[in-house]
Amino acid sequence: MYGGQRQGGISTPKDQPFVLLFTGRSGEQYGYRDGWDENGVFLYTGEGQAGDMEFRGGNRAIRDHAKDGKDLHLFQHLGKNQGFRYLGTFSCSTWEFREGVDQYGNLRRAIVFHLAQSEEDTIADAHAASAP
Predict the structure, then answer these.
(1) Is the pTM of this model over 0.70?
(2) What CATH number is given to the structural domain containing 21?
(3) Where are the beta strands (DSSP E) in the chain?
(4) Do the domain assignments include residue 2?
(5) Which one of 10, 46, 68, 102 has the lowest number of neighbouring Cβ atoms within 10 Å?
């Protein structure tokens, strides 16, 4: 509907004000391990299955999303034929390099983005959790 890449976890539809991010367990076979940290930050592994990850393509789009005027929308894959759950709008507060393993089992430098959920989504989640 919006265009963008259909494979992988980062979709950058041309001429749209957003970047679509997808997370799920299937990425673990390629060295990706995403999830929440103890501070409520979502740690999202960049793209690239072999060799060191670099800031190009989807990785650049995440890092530069605010400068480019684009929102980050995160979806969680629920399993084969189970669809996706929308986790909300996020911003990339920072990133780091971590040592990881690529699809061939070789050590590599992986980019891990620190995604903070938007304040509106956080407030909505709190209200939903406290509803009777």
Answers:
(1) yes
(2) 2.30.280.20
(3) 10-11, 18-23, 35-36, 42-45, 71-77, 84-101, 107-117
(4) no
(5) 68
